[in-house]
Structure formats: C-alpha cells, structure tokens
C-alpha cells in the first residue's frame, strides 16, 4: 500500500554494529530536514549506517555528511 516499500541494504563488511540504527535515524532525519524526499532520506540513512558499521565504536563510527555524500550506490 502507499507509504510502504522495501529498500535493499548496502553490502559491506561489518566490524561493529553498535551505532548502526542511531546512525541511520540521524542520517534519515538530517536528510529530511534538509528537504530530501522520503526515498532519498532513506538512502542517505542507509549509506550513513553502512559506513558506520565498517568502523569500531559508537560516536567514532558516525560518518560526516561529506563522507556519506561521497558514497554512490
């Protein structure tokens, strides 16, 4: 139905998933607050979380906006 859908996750080698959910939500919210569409915000959050799980730690794993924007799918 309207408003429902699926988005394929990015394939990465995860080393620590501690902050993955928080990073996704933060990236999604930041993108929406910047005017991104729902799909674009989901993609931004996914890219942010994908970067996060490739790093150790919580706060130290959260990527910058520039790092997220440098990822292409």
Please render the helix and strand layout as text.
Elements: H1 20-33, H2 38-52, H3 65-69
What does this molecule look like?
The chain has helices spanning 20-33, 38-52, 65-69. The protein is globular. The protein has a domain at 20-69. It contains 3 helices and no strands. By secondary structure, it is mostly helical.
| C-alpha geometry | globular
Unreliable stretches covering 5 or more consecutive residues: none
Order of SSEs = HHH
CA(first)-CA(last) distance: 26 Å
The tally of beta strands, per DSSP, is 0
Which structural class fits the helix and strand makeup?
mainly alpha
> Main β-sheet: number of strands, strand sense, barrel status?
none
Overall pLDDT: 93
Residues in β-strands, percent: under 5%
Q: What is the number of helices?
A: 3
Helix content: 40-55%
Radius of gyration from CA coordinates: 12 Å
